[in-house]
Every structure is written in C-alpha cells, then in structure tokens.
Amino acid sequence: MCGIVGYIGKKQAAPVILDGLARLEYRGYDSAGMAVFDGEKVNVTKAVGRLKVLEELTHGGETMPGLAGIGHTRWATHGAPNDVNSHPHFNKGKTITVVHNGIIENYISLRNKLTKKGYSFVSETDTEVAAQMLDYYYNGNPLETILKVLHRIEGSYALGIMFADHPGEIFAARKGSPLIVGQSSDGCFIASDVPAILRYTRKVYFVDEQEIVRLEADHMHFYTMDEEEIEKEATTIDWDANAAEKAGYEHFMLKEMYEQPKTVTDTLTPRLKKDRIEIEELGLGDEEIRQIRKIHIVACGSAYHAGVTGKYVLEGLARIPVEVDLASEFRYRNPILEEGAMVIAVSQSGETADTLAAMREAKLKGFQVLGIVNVVGSSIAREADHVMYTWAGPEIAVATTKAYSAQLIAFYLLAVKFAFVRETIDDTMYRLLLRDLRRLPDQIELLLNSKEKIQHFANRYIGARDVFFIGRGIDYAISLEGSLKLKEISYIHSEAYAAGELKHGTISLIEEGTLVAAVSTQPALYQKTISNMVEVRARGAFLLAVTNVGNREIEKVSDYTIYIPETNPFFTNSLAIIPLQLFGYYVAVGKGCDVDKPRNLAKSVTVE
Ligand code: F6R
Q1: How far is C-alpha 192 from the chain's CA centre?
Q2: Which of 38, 145, 177, 197 could be disulfide-bonded to 102 (CB atoms 3.0-4.6 Å)?
Q3: 245 alpha carbon to ligand 1 midpoint, in Å?
Q4: Per residue in 192-246, pLDDT tens?
Q5: Tens digits of residue pLDDT in 453-479
Q6: Separation between Cα atoms, residue 243 and residue 577, nearest integer Å
Q7: Which phi and psi angles does 520 have, rounded to 5°?
Q8: CA 300, CA 236: separation in Å to the nearest integer?
Q9: Beta strands 68-74 and 369-373, pairing class
C-alpha cells in the first residue's frame, strides 16, 4: 500500500527520499512522486509506474535540490494510477504540499464545500481535498491549520505536509494508517515503515493514533489533537539492516522461503522450554485457559489460511470450538460472541485494515483480543490486549511465506499449551508433541534442500491454464495456501477444494491434462483422498501428490509424488506447504513474472 518518506536536515532531501521509497517498494504501488523545497519554492515531480521512472526524471534526485522534502509511492484507491493522481498534491500556488496514505471517507462532501468557495481540483483523489482544505484554513500557523483540517476529516490518514512559508519544518500526522518518525545527527525523517530509514537511523518513534509531529532539522515535537505538546520515547531498532536485503538470492521470496527454518526456530524458542510451553505474553493463567469456551480467529489472505489450520489444530488438540472468519466478513456480520470467547487476530503486517477493524469490533463488544502479529509496533500489535509476535523479521516479498510459517507455529504453541492445561492430552502426548515441534526446522530445511525435484516439475507447468488443489481437514487448509501461492505470483488460475466437495460441481472442470495437486498428510483420511484422486484421474487429470513418507500406496494413483518427513498429523502443514511454495515460485519464475511484486497486489493492505 502507499509509502511515505519525508526528510528535513543537512543532506539533500531528494536522494534520501528516493532511497527510502525504494525500501518501501514491497508495499506495492503504481506511481511515485516527491516535493522538495529548494530555498525559494517547492518543486514537485511525479510519475506513473515504477520508482525508477521518478529516479530517471530527477537524475537520482539531482534536479531537485533542497534540504526538506516529502515523497510518496501510491497504490491507487481514488482515481486511476496516472501522473495527475499521484502524490504529492498541492494548493494552487504549491505553497502547501501533501502526501497521504489512507482514505478520506467524507472527501466528496468536503470537496463540494470547497468547490462552492471557488476551489477547483485537478485530480480525482481524496488527498487533494486535504491540500485544498489546508489552503482554505491556513492562518500562517501550520499546526493550528492542520488540526483544524484533521478535525474535519473522516477516515484514515498518514500525512506528510510542507508549507513553503515555513521552510524549516515538515509535518506528519496519523490516524488509522502506519507512520513512524526517526532522528539522526543529520536530520529527521518520516516514513510509513522502519526499513525506509534504517540506513540513516535506528532511533525511531512510533506515531500514535491522532498524533501530529512537527519535524525540524534537529528536533521533533509531538502534539495531541488538542495541540498539547507531548513527550515520546524513542525505540532503538536492532534489526540487522541486511535482513531487508536479498542476500544473494534471486528474489526476496526465495530468500524468505529459505529463512523458514530460522523463522520457525525463532518463533518456537522463546516459548518452548525444556519440558513445557510457556507463552508469557498471552496474559492468561491456567484457570483462565480452562475457562475459554470458544475461539474466534479473524484474518485475511494467507493469515486466514493459517487460521483455518489453527481451527483444526485447536479443536483437535484442545477440544475448544473455533470459528475462523475472514476479517472483512466478521466486521460487518454483527458477530455473536458469547461469554468466555477469545478472539485472535492474525496479521503479518499488523496493518491490514479489515483485520484491524474486525479486532476493534470484538473489543467494542467487550472481548479481549490476542494478536498474532509479525511487525513490532504495528497498529494491531498496539491495539491488541495481548500480542504473540511471530519472529519472522521483515518480509519483503508481497507473497508471504516465512510469516505464514511462523503463524502456523503460533497456533501449534497455543493448541498444545491449551490442550495440556485443559487435560485433553496426557503427559506422554505432550512430550511427543514438543519433540515433533522441535524437529520442524530441520525437516523444513530438508525439504528446501530438495528443491530441484519440484523445480523440475514446475517447469512443465508454466503453460498451465487451471490448477486445482485438493485435500481434507488440515490438508484442505494446506491446499488453500498452496493454491493462493501459485495464483497470486504466476497468474495461473487455481482453486483449492475440500476433496470431498469436488463432485458437487468442480469436477466438471477437470479435463485431459488438468493438474490436480492432492495433499494427503492425514493418515485417517488417506483412503478418502485416494478415492477423490481416482475420480479426477479417471477424467484425465494429472496428479501431483504431497504426502507423508511411507504412504507408498498413493503412488498407484498419482503421477508425481512428493514426500514430507514424519511428524505429528497436526503439524504437517508446516512441511507440506514447502514444496507447494516452491512450486508456485518456480512456475512464476519460469513464466518470467515479477515474483516479488505481483501485479495489483500490495504487501500491506491498509484500506478496505
Ligand atoms: C498472500 C498474502 C496476503 C496476506 C493478507 C493479510 O501471500 O500475503 O494474502 O496474507 O493480505 O496480510 P497481513 O498478514 O499483513 O494481515
């Protein structure tokens, strides 16, 4: 989703902004622009397309000299991606410039009011309304003016603002969209996310809801919506800056897939003690765990798929009823949450608008929310009552892999812990489950190291038109994610079906040569899935099977078989997903797709 970078200090602003925007490319965008104050006036350059177009237009920023500026990568919401709609937006004389992430929901009525007062608009965006409103209310005092405007705006925003007659300051404000500010000895920074400024500083402040920041070259001031100045504590970011680089891999996605053994270890280790699981951040004692009557999981996309697995694992092990909802559905269906219910919001970015809204809905109904979140300090992390971080580190590829794997681990930990406390498993089973959890990182590594086999197979399918993924129970959850991985990066149509559901319609789509990937990792369901495989094979399907080592019977009905190492059936998702991720990746690479930045997708979906 949109990225914001701003800078004021001793350096030339334009190269700093371009560099920061490049590090936010993972968020997805379709145009870019920046505004730089050259000492006399504000110059603006904008361009549709990749950031490199803006870089070329400005010779890497050289044609836009100046020590203060704001920049933006836009992911179109209001109005098509084009030069005019891209940010920054400004008033008539370009004396006030604005970059914005979020949606101003009442922009039409605000725009109509301004039109009546003689304002005209050049773009179709909601953001230009903010720039013109600032012009309308401007009284020479930027802070006062910004506050007046913010009080009239409904919706969400992260804003970067410059006033030409206040050349020593830039402003930032936030409500509902991510924003951080940072400080180094060379200047002060605004950014949508930490990687944008990590090269310059590790001293970061997380801007809270409805806060405004006034940045000078060597100082930052924070204000509430009542214009009260407040003190904030800086956070020192200790991520390895290289963690955000490709480290020799062809794509971030491949690098991140290879990081999965580490991710899984990092997510397990702090909670997996010698002979037990401890999840301190859960904030629940044993008695409270025993009192849980129901769990509601809300999430989007792959995080939702992790939640579907979470349902099978929590119900299967801890015998707690679980409902898993797409966050976009949960938030509008007036969900019934009965006493004793626990809500879990799952999100890599911690900024997904629907998940955040679903979580707020649950809180409004008086329920405590546990966030399973990857990005530290993100909105969901800060608003959840308790946070269980997935320690996957920054994930750059738009298609998630390592964060999804870490989410699975979070669910396993919760399920095994709850099961033990609620005595739905005995000591022996507890020990066996802990042993199998500990084995997962090495087993994932093993599967990654045999990537050639799947790479070879994937090359045969770069011309596929439709692919179907089938499975039952947890294998269905795995199929959902396998299918999403393939379609989102290779643009090949694919669908996941509960294997038993095929004959209720979908089987009519199977024709000679259609690839069907059958996931069969649940021994109790082997025979059932084999029957479904036979059904599609009889109609001409080519069958790829992913199953447990030792299940040789499946070879009788499959054309190509991938075996995963032995683990507890509740944990097979962590292993079976690896060949499916690799399959999607190599098909997309074979087709020449932009794997890390698939078309139309954004890493962080901060609007509905
Ligand atoms: C798919 C993918 C998306 C995200 C979804 C939720 O590869 O990455 O489906 O899983 O947009 O995002 P988060 O987890 O950031 O809430």
Answers
A1: 13
A2: 177
A3: 20
A4: 988 899 999 999 999 999 999 999 999 999 999 999 999 999 998 876 655 556 6
A5: 999 999 999 999 999 999 999 999 999
A6: 23
A7: -140, 90
A8: 30
A9: unpaired
CA-to-CA distance for 283 and 186, rounded, in angstroms?
A: 41
Site to probe by mutation for ligand 1, drawn from 400, 408, 603 as the one with most ligand atoms within 8 Å of Cβ, is: 400
d(CA 481, CA 468): 12
Could you read off the pLDDT of 324-376 as tens digits, one per residue? 999 999 988 888 888 999 999 999 999 999 999 999 999 999 999 999 999 87
User: In the structure encoding, which two tokens stand for residue 534, read together?
Assistant: 């036979």
Query: Measured in angstroms, how far is the CA atom of residue 135 from the centroid of ligand 1?
Result: 38
| 2 classed as catalytic | yes
Whether a cis peptide bond, with omega within 30° of 0, leads into 195 is no
Residue 603 catalytic?
yes
Max distance between CA atoms of the chain, in angstroms, equals 79
Residue listed under structure tokens 């447990």: 548
- For residue 462, give both structure tokens: 């770069």
Find out whether 443 and 549 touch, Cβ atoms under 8 Å: no
Q: How far is CA 67 from the centre of its chain?
A: 33
Task: Compute φ and ψ for 553, nearest 5 degrees.
Answer: -60, -30
Domains of the chain: 3-245 (3.60.20.10), 253-447 (3.40.50.10490), 450-591 (3.40.50.10490)
Token readout for 470 is 């089938």
- The sign of the torsion formed by the CA atoms of 374, 587, 497, 453 equals negative
